[in-house]
Amino acid sequence: MIDWLGDPWQFEFMRRALLAGLLVALATSVVGAFVVVKGLAFLADAVAHTSLAGAAIAFLAGGGSAAISLGAAGAAGATAIGVSFLTQRAHLREDTAIALLFAALFALGVLLISRARNYTLELTSFLVGNILTVPDADLAVMGALAAVVLAVTLIFYRELLFTAYDPTMAAASGVPVAAVQTGLLVLVALAAVAAFRLVGVVLVMAMLVAPAATAALIVRRLPLIMLGGALVGTAATLMGLYASFYADVAAGPAIVVASVALFALVLASSSGVRMAGLLRR
Amino acid sequence: MSNSSVPSPAASPASGGEFAVEVVNLTTGYRAGPAIEDVSFALPHGSFLGLLGPNGSGKSTLIKALIGLLPAWRGSVRVLGMRPQAARTRTGYMPQAEDVDWSFPATAREVVAMGLYRRSFGLDRLRRSDRERAMTALERLSVAGLAGRQIGDLSGGQQRRVLLARALVKDPDVLLLDEPTAGLDAPAERELLDLLGGLSAQGTSIITSTHDITCVNECCDGALFLNRTVIAFGPPSEAITAESLDRTFEGHVLVVGQGGRQLAVAPHDAHEHERTDA
Q: Which of A162, A216, A222 has the CB atom closest to B114's CB atom?
């Protein structure tokens, strides 16, 4: 049994994958708490997909993995700021603005990658991630992104909390609400880029939503949802990596399936507890 | 201007400016167009003003202009002799309860502490005294026992108290309340109004929008009828007339004579009555 649990970690690539998973779980759960509470899932998904355009540009220009991550961060950040601009200045409905940028930049990304020689192979690795071959540069980028997301959230926690809870009142108290809202979208973008090498652009949204949503079933304070989300994300990463190691399946999708399975499990047991409570009454 | 001001029961010498609130020829609104036009009134320190008008008459718009959320398109707004934004540290604001996200995962104490927000980038961002000040504000409204509860789990009356505690936590000189009693039952409304009356007696200047004409008549020392512009302004005994009611509510208000007392029923209530009669 101990061997079974310990075996995978004899391998360097598995240890690196675990470290990458931990960094991503940290970044996504902190931002994910806001995504879940404020209903920003569609935006998070769009930001993740549009990061492909920036990653593709860096990739075709012959950039290494750090450049690709930077390109992805650039495109994702541009989407976040673009959505803010279109809703706040051009007065478009938010879902319309998101859909426009989502479609345009994701299509641009696929279009650019179609110029590559190993088109299908490269596209697949962008779309579903490749956690088992994470190079040092990617780990460094993930670490930096996670650190930035954590630090900014900690420093501006009051502003983020106040704006998320009650933007009108926050503005009346002197919080620069428009800047804070745009800032939150940029944080979502940075967390999405951190997760993008792990699970791919298509499944980033699951990492942003599932762990925080699972934590929100159990605890009802924002900091606890962040902490709980990080724990759930870490557990899902472990489960996914074991599945990948022993069942020889793709690690990224396995992590996502595990995180949603954890959500279902907690939902079932918490509603089971509630049902039992009602029956006892 | 001076002839259109309410006599002051307790002027507060500590406050800047001749008036707590002074609005001159104010026009403002939203993208769709102006919501209030050419509004003028001046409120002495320590007054308790009831803002009356039907839905869409511009009550919330006026309050938002006073807190500095909407800029003046024309005219001017002075709060404690300052621009509304500059007066924010001494102004408390309570939004309509229906505008608040009650499902948000926050405790009553966290919500009250938000009222202490100030822009700063130093270490005082982490001041612990905020917690104690939030508790003091909750105690003042006798809901300290709810400090750790989720806001979504509170009753309507308790939620209003938490919002009011947030507006009061800075000990403001001017208190701006948007429909604080809407949706409350009669005893809860009475309790809240008594509390506001007490604050007003201590020198806090209060402006509250409401549908309840009777409560303005009984609790406030000033009444302002608003329907896109000022219809009537003065002490309740002078401002509340059949004519101002008729012009403000455009005939949708019921004035009932009853044993020498006149009862006015605003549209909300009238609607309720129709429904119960049917």
A: A162
